[in-house]
Amino acid sequence: MIEASSMISAMSTDPASFGAVLADRSGDAFSAVLTRAAGSQEREAVREAAAQLVSSTFILPVLQSIHDSPFLEPPFAPGYAQKRFQPLLDQYIADRLTSAARLPLIDVITDRLLGAEETGP
Fold first, then answer.
1. Could you tell me which of 111, 118, 112, 110 has the C-alpha nearest to residue 47?
2. What is the pTM of this model?
3. Would you say residue 121 lies in a domain?
4. Which domain holds residue 18?
5. What are 37-44's contacts with CB under 8 Å, separation 24+?
6. Are 4 and 21 in contact (CB under 8 A)?
7. Domain membership flag for residue 63
């Protein structure tokens, strides 16, 4: 573990050597650690975008079709508030379903967007 005093002294004496002080145990430079972190953040951002795509393309239309039933008669017909806020609730439910289900389609879309080649059987 790196002590705070050594980091502060490296920052104050020579800012260029600050990266060397923050090297991890395997000998990687701080810039390499940052590059790996940026790559994983990029993958997570692409995965989140893929999840939103699956949510709005596949799950949301199913939820909307449930509410567009022709059999909604006055005792069971939606009121003004339900008509107004139901799309927001549907979007929330669709997003939660895609994040909780860990759908393999999201992983496939993420890999294709990142240009990764499938190496498995």
1. 110
2. 0.58
3. no
4. 4-114
5. 42/114, 43/110, 43/114
6. no
7. yes
